[in-house]
Amino acid sequence: MRADLAKEVWDQLGVLIKFRGGFALAQTVSARMRCKSKVIDGNSPMLRDPSLIPLSHQHQHALSLCVRLERALQAGAVDLDVWQLEVHQHYANEVQFHFAAEEKVLFPAARRLPELAALVEELNGEHERLREYFVHAEQGTMNPSELQTFVKLLSGHIRKEERRLFEAMQRRMRPEELKSLEKELARALEDTVQACRLNSRRGEIKAR
Protein backbone atom coordinates (compact mmCIF):
# COMPACT_ATOMS: atom_id res chain seq x y z
CA MET A 1 0.00 0.00 0.00
CA ARG A 2 1.34 3.44 -0.93
CA ALA A 3 2.42 5.60 2.01
CA ASP A 4 -0.16 8.32 1.34
CA LEU A 5 -2.99 5.79 1.03
CA ALA A 6 -1.85 3.94 4.15
CA LYS A 7 -1.82 7.21 6.10
CA GLU A 8 -5.36 8.07 5.05
CA VAL A 9 -6.59 4.59 5.99
CA TRP A 10 -4.77 4.95 9.31
CA ASP A 11 -6.45 8.31 9.91
CA GLN A 12 -9.86 6.71 9.42
CA LEU A 13 -9.28 3.43 11.26
CA GLY A 14 -6.22 3.88 13.45
CA VAL A 15 -5.18 0.24 13.76
CA LEU A 16 -1.55 -0.71 14.21
CA ILE A 17 -0.19 -4.10 15.23
CA LYS A 18 2.63 -4.33 17.74
CA PHE A 19 5.46 -6.21 16.04
CA ARG A 20 9.07 -6.77 17.12
CA GLY A 21 9.18 -3.84 19.48
CA GLY A 22 7.48 -1.42 17.12
CA PHE A 23 4.23 -0.99 15.24
CA ALA A 24 3.36 -2.00 11.69
CA LEU A 25 0.18 -1.52 9.70
CA ALA A 26 -2.13 -4.46 10.23
CA GLN A 27 -2.12 -5.55 6.61
CA THR A 28 1.64 -6.22 6.74
CA VAL A 29 1.29 -8.79 9.52
CA SER A 30 -0.45 -12.15 9.42
CA ALA A 31 -3.87 -12.04 11.06
CA ARG A 32 -3.05 -15.37 12.70
CA MET A 33 -0.22 -13.96 14.79
CA ARG A 34 -0.76 -13.83 18.54
CA CYS A 35 -0.36 -10.10 18.96
CA LYS A 36 -2.27 -7.00 19.88
CA SER A 37 -3.09 -3.98 17.81
CA LYS A 38 -3.12 -0.39 18.94
CA VAL A 39 -6.13 1.76 18.10
CA ILE A 40 -6.14 5.53 18.36
CA ASP A 41 -9.55 7.03 19.08
CA GLY A 42 -9.17 10.76 19.62
CA ASN A 43 -6.26 11.12 22.05
CA SER A 44 -6.72 7.78 23.80
CA PRO A 45 -4.51 4.85 22.76
CA MET A 46 -6.25 1.46 22.94
CA LEU A 47 -5.11 -2.13 22.47
CA ARG A 48 -7.11 -4.35 20.16
CA ASP A 49 -7.66 -7.86 21.49
CA PRO A 50 -6.21 -10.68 19.31
CA SER A 51 -9.69 -12.17 18.88
CA LEU A 52 -10.74 -9.16 16.80
CA ILE A 53 -7.57 -8.60 14.77
CA PRO A 54 -8.70 -10.69 11.75
CA LEU A 55 -11.82 -8.53 11.43
CA SER A 56 -9.80 -5.31 11.88
CA HIS A 57 -7.41 -6.58 9.23
CA GLN A 58 -10.31 -6.93 6.78
CA HIS A 59 -11.66 -3.53 7.82
CA GLN A 60 -8.41 -1.98 6.60
CA HIS A 61 -8.85 -3.62 3.20
CA ALA A 62 -12.38 -2.21 2.89
CA LEU A 63 -11.32 1.26 4.03
CA SER A 64 -8.52 1.25 1.46
CA LEU A 65 -11.15 0.68 -1.22
CA CYS A 66 -13.26 3.51 0.24
CA VAL A 67 -10.34 5.94 0.29
CA ARG A 68 -9.37 5.22 -3.32
CA LEU A 69 -12.95 5.46 -4.52
CA GLU A 70 -13.52 8.69 -2.60
CA ARG A 71 -10.43 10.21 -4.22
CA ALA A 72 -11.65 9.21 -7.67
CA LEU A 73 -15.07 10.70 -6.99
CA GLN A 74 -13.58 13.96 -5.77
CA ALA A 75 -11.37 14.15 -8.85
CA GLY A 76 -14.34 13.50 -11.13
CA ALA A 77 -12.44 10.59 -12.68
CA VAL A 78 -14.77 7.66 -12.04
CA ASP A 79 -14.95 4.84 -14.56
CA LEU A 80 -18.21 3.33 -13.34
CA ASP A 81 -17.68 -0.06 -14.95
CA VAL A 82 -14.20 -0.46 -13.47
CA TRP A 83 -15.17 0.66 -9.97
CA GLN A 84 -18.34 -1.39 -9.82
CA LEU A 85 -16.37 -4.47 -10.84
CA GLU A 86 -13.83 -3.83 -8.07
CA VAL A 87 -16.57 -3.25 -5.48
CA HIS A 88 -18.27 -6.49 -6.51
CA GLN A 89 -15.00 -8.44 -6.45
CA HIS A 90 -14.15 -7.13 -3.00
CA TYR A 91 -17.52 -8.35 -1.75
CA ALA A 92 -17.15 -11.73 -3.42
CA ASN A 93 -13.59 -12.28 -2.20
CA GLU A 94 -13.83 -11.00 1.37
CA VAL A 95 -16.75 -8.89 2.57
CA GLN A 96 -19.40 -11.59 2.24
CA PHE A 97 -17.35 -13.85 4.53
CA HIS A 98 -16.68 -10.97 6.92
CA PHE A 99 -20.40 -10.16 7.20
CA ALA A 100 -21.32 -13.83 7.66
CA ALA A 101 -18.78 -14.32 10.46
CA GLU A 102 -19.96 -11.20 12.26
CA GLU A 103 -23.61 -12.21 12.00
CA LYS A 104 -22.98 -15.83 13.02
CA VAL A 105 -20.49 -15.26 15.85
CA LEU A 106 -19.68 -11.65 16.72
CA PHE A 107 -23.16 -10.12 16.86
CA PRO A 108 -24.70 -12.93 19.00
CA ALA A 109 -21.80 -12.56 21.46
CA ALA A 110 -22.29 -8.78 21.58
CA ARG A 111 -26.05 -9.13 22.14
CA ARG A 112 -25.30 -10.85 25.45
CA LEU A 113 -24.15 -7.44 26.66
CA PRO A 114 -27.42 -5.49 27.15
CA GLU A 115 -25.87 -2.10 26.39
CA LEU A 116 -24.79 -3.32 22.94
CA ALA A 117 -28.09 -4.81 21.78
CA ALA A 118 -29.30 -1.64 20.04
CA LEU A 119 -25.91 -1.06 18.41
CA VAL A 120 -25.86 -4.63 17.07
CA GLU A 121 -29.29 -4.18 15.50
CA GLU A 122 -28.10 -0.95 13.91
CA LEU A 123 -24.99 -2.63 12.50
CA ASN A 124 -26.98 -5.61 11.28
CA GLY A 125 -29.33 -3.26 9.44
CA GLU A 126 -26.35 -1.57 7.82
CA HIS A 127 -25.17 -4.97 6.60
CA GLU A 128 -28.45 -5.38 4.75
CA ARG A 129 -28.21 -1.91 3.22
CA LEU A 130 -24.62 -2.52 2.16
CA ARG A 131 -25.54 -5.85 0.57
CA GLU A 132 -28.03 -3.97 -1.61
CA TYR A 133 -25.26 -1.68 -2.84
CA PHE A 134 -23.00 -4.66 -3.54
CA VAL A 135 -25.81 -6.23 -5.60
CA HIS A 136 -26.17 -3.00 -7.56
CA ALA A 137 -22.42 -3.01 -8.20
CA GLU A 138 -22.64 -6.58 -9.50
CA GLN A 139 -25.50 -5.56 -11.77
CA GLY A 140 -23.60 -2.50 -12.98
CA THR A 141 -26.43 -0.11 -12.13
CA MET A 142 -24.69 2.33 -9.75
CA ASN A 143 -24.19 6.00 -10.58
CA PRO A 144 -21.59 8.37 -9.02
CA SER A 145 -24.08 9.60 -6.42
CA GLU A 146 -24.88 6.06 -5.30
CA LEU A 147 -21.17 5.21 -5.15
CA GLN A 148 -20.64 8.24 -2.90
CA THR A 149 -23.45 7.14 -0.58
CA PHE A 150 -22.01 3.61 -0.53
CA VAL A 151 -18.54 4.86 0.44
CA LYS A 152 -19.94 6.99 3.25
CA LEU A 153 -22.06 4.13 4.62
CA LEU A 154 -19.28 1.53 4.46
CA SER A 155 -16.58 3.70 6.00
CA GLY A 156 -18.92 4.89 8.75
CA HIS A 157 -20.01 1.32 9.44
CA ILE A 158 -16.41 0.18 9.86
CA ARG A 159 -15.51 3.01 12.22
CA LYS A 160 -18.64 2.29 14.27
CA GLU A 161 -17.64 -1.36 14.67
CA GLU A 162 -14.03 -0.54 15.54
CA ARG A 163 -14.58 2.36 17.92
CA ARG A 164 -17.83 1.33 19.59
CA LEU A 165 -18.55 -2.39 19.21
CA PHE A 166 -15.04 -3.84 19.36
CA GLU A 167 -13.94 -1.56 22.17
CA ALA A 168 -16.98 -2.33 24.33
CA MET A 169 -16.71 -6.08 23.74
CA GLN A 170 -13.05 -6.38 24.65
CA ARG A 171 -13.60 -4.15 27.68
CA ARG A 172 -16.59 -6.10 29.01
CA MET A 173 -15.89 -9.71 28.03
CA ARG A 174 -13.74 -11.99 30.17
CA PRO A 175 -10.38 -13.23 28.78
CA GLU A 176 -11.71 -16.77 28.39
CA GLU A 177 -14.74 -15.44 26.50
CA LEU A 178 -12.51 -13.48 24.13
CA LYS A 179 -10.34 -16.54 23.57
CA SER A 180 -13.43 -18.60 22.71
CA LEU A 181 -14.62 -15.79 20.41
CA GLU A 182 -11.29 -15.85 18.60
CA LYS A 183 -11.63 -19.57 17.84
CA GLU A 184 -15.26 -19.26 16.77
CA LEU A 185 -14.52 -16.36 14.43
CA ALA A 186 -11.61 -18.21 12.83
CA ARG A 187 -13.82 -21.24 12.31
CA ALA A 188 -16.68 -19.15 10.91
CA LEU A 189 -14.43 -17.35 8.45
CA GLU A 190 -12.95 -20.64 7.26
CA ASP A 191 -16.36 -22.33 7.02
CA THR A 192 -17.83 -19.58 4.85
CA VAL A 193 -14.81 -19.61 2.54
CA GLN A 194 -15.06 -23.40 2.15
CA ALA A 195 -18.81 -23.19 1.48
CA CYS A 196 -18.25 -20.57 -1.22
CA ARG A 197 -15.57 -22.68 -2.87
CA LEU A 198 -17.87 -25.70 -2.83
CA ASN A 199 -20.76 -23.75 -4.36
CA SER A 200 -18.43 -22.32 -6.98
CA ARG A 201 -17.22 -25.79 -7.99
CA ARG A 202 -20.81 -27.04 -8.18
CA GLY A 203 -21.69 -24.12 -10.43
CA GLU A 204 -18.74 -24.86 -12.71
CA ILE A 205 -19.74 -28.53 -12.98
CA LYS A 206 -23.37 -27.63 -13.68
CA ALA A 207 -22.33 -25.20 -16.42
CA ARG A 208 -20.38 -27.86 -18.30
Outline the structure in words.
By secondary structure, the protein is an alpha+beta fold. It has a single domain, classed as Four Helix Bundle (Hemerythrin (Met), subunit A), CATH 1.20.120. Helices cover 73% and strands 9% of the residues. It is built from six helices and four strands; from the N terminus they run H-E-E-E-E-H-H-H-H-H. The chain is globular and about 50 Å long. The termini are far apart. About 10% of the residues have low confidence.
The strands making up the biggest β-sheet line up spatially as: 2-1-3-4
Please tally the β strands and state the result: 4
Beta-sheet strand percentage? 5-15%
Coarse structural class: alpha+beta
Gross morphology:
globular
Q: How many angstroms separate the termini? A: 39 Å
pLDDT < 50 runs, ≥5 residues: 16-36
Overall tally of structural domains: 1
Helix proportion: over 70%
Tally the helices.
Answer: 6
Q: Report the CATH topology name.
A: Four Helix Bundle (Hemerythrin (Met), subunit A)
Overall pLDDT confidence: 81
> Largest beta sheet, briefly?
4 strands, antiparallel
SSE diagram, text form:
Elements lengths: L2 H11 L1 E5 L2 E4 L11 E5 L2 E5 L4 H23 L4 H32 L5 H23 L4 H29 L2 H33 L1
Antiparallel strand pairs: 1-2, 1-3, 3-4
Tags for this entry?
alpha+beta, globular, Four Helix Bundle (Hemerythrin (Met), subunit A), single chain, 208 residues, four-stranded antiparallel β-sheet
In short:
By secondary structure, the protein is α+β, with helices and mostly antiparallel strands. The protein is about 75% helix and about 10% strand.
